[in-house]
Write a sequence for this structure.
């Protein structure tokens, strides 16, 4: 068999499921043998993949998260567009088979799929059912509704609100859900040259001033800006509302100590045009260049295998990442999966909400590094070292410097 490798950035339950997907592919056909290799986090997988490409030791397939899309797509000669690879292998490729939120994020300007959508997610709000019952309140649809119920949740003995990733959930997806422009040049899609962040938007500043005020009142608890800082207190039943990835569902089902449900990431009722769908989160798979025709054929076979409704459904149900094709979604619906597991449908429903002018995606170079600047400044906001306005002035200034540098490296 032809050996191919797949570097990824997933751990925990989701890392186990990657291995199960590879085993299913290997068992389904005799000609290709796929080996998945965990490279740590999403950030580490991207860095490892780029470094390996420079030294000619790249894997066949690299998983790259949303924040790294511009980096990988603009790395000259590093990837073969997924759509070309699949067509060259003799398969048909139908862009419209994919749900709308997925079609644009990893595509080239002409719509060609460069990355192969794989694990797509939405930031959703998980609900501790006991907490809401005890406080006698309903789950909020808007942040105004959250403000109204937060004192009751606190009085009932819970931390009202916690989030898993401040950049993804309360920054990037603040822009998508509230339908506000995130960066110039069509959120960065039209050109890497002279693209500038718009994070000093008064609405975003308002959101973070609210978060700081809620944190001072005990309505929001900042455990940290990163990935896994906050899931545990929710699982332990201390938190009423937790904003996390739909892709955390598979893990949560095994670890939560209380019954939970979920609803959409709230938006501001006061912002005109708000309530659009979120950006897709998660990651896509990129076929790295410089490989033999046999290996590329195996990668194409694997990509094709991944889009089959059965495998999509398996992956969706095992993890909580959304079904990325309409066919897989319909199959899960037909089988009554969402009657049993309504939480699993929240992410896909959120991705199918109305389109907003600014909800399609963003394409920003060095964005993982820009997230690091954000995380540093958010820590300073919640510790009281800086004001929200000063923090966003700094993020915009330093972020724009990174974008300028990226434009030079991308030529
Ligand atoms: O936790 P995930 O995999 O849904 O990813 C969330 C973000 O999109 C990562 O940047």
């Amino acid at each position: 068999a032809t050996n191919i490798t797949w570097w990824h950035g997933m751990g925990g339950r989701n890392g186990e499921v990657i291995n199960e997907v590879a085993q299913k592919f290997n068992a389904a056909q005799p000609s290709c043998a796929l080996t998945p290799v965990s490279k740590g986090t999403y950030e580490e997988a991207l860095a490892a993949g780029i470094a390996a490409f420079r030294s000619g030791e790249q894997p066949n397939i690299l998983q790259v998260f949303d924040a790294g899309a511009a980096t990988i797509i603009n790395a000259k000669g590093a990837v073969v567009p997924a759509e070309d690879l699949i067509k060259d292998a003799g398969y048909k490729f139908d862009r419209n088979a994919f749900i709308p939120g997925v079609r644009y994020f990893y595509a080239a300007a002409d719509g060609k799929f460069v990355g192969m959508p794989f694990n797509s997610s939405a930031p959703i709000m998980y609900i501790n059912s006991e907490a809401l019952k005890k406080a006698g309140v309903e789950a909020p649809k808007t942040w105004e509704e959250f403000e109204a119920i937060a004192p009751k949740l606190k009085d009932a003995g819970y931390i009202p609100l916690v989030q898993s990733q401040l950049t993804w959930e309360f920054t990037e997806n603040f822009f998508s859900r509230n339908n506000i422009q995130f960066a110039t040049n069509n959120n960065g899609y039209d050109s890497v040259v002279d693209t500038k962040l718009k994070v000093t938007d008064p609405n975003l500043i308002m959101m973070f001033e609210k978060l700081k005020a809620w944190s001072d009142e005990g309505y929001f608890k900042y455990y940290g800006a990163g990935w896994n800082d906050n899931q545990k207190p929710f699982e332990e039943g201390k938190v009423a509302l937790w904003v996390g990835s739909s892709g955390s569902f598979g893990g949560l089902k095994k670890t939560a100590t209380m019954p939970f449900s979920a609803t959409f990431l709230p938006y501001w009722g006061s912002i005109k045009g708000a309530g659009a769908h979120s950006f897709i989160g998660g990651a896509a798979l990129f076929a790295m260049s410089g490989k033999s025709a046999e290996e590329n054929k195996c990668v194409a076979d694997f990509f094709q295998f991944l889009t089959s409704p059965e495998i999509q459904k398996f992956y969706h149900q095992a993890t909580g990442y959304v079904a990325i094709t309409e066919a897989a979604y319909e199959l899960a619906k037909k089988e009554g999966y969402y009657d049993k597991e309504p939480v699993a449908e929240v992410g896909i429903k959120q991705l199918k909400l109305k389109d907003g002018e600014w909800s399609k995606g963003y394409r920003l170079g060095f964005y993982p590094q820009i997230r690091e600047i954000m995380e540093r400044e958010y820590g300073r906001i919640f510790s009281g070292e800086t004001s929200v306005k000063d923090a966003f002035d700094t993020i915009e200034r330093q972020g724009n410097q990174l974008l300028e540098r990226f434009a030079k490296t991308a030529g």
The chain has a mean pLDDT of 96. The pocket of SN-glycerol-3-phosphate is lined by residues 42, 65-67, 119, 121, 168, 245, 247, 281-282 (CB under 6 Å). The chain has two domains: 2-121+281-345, 123-277+365-409.
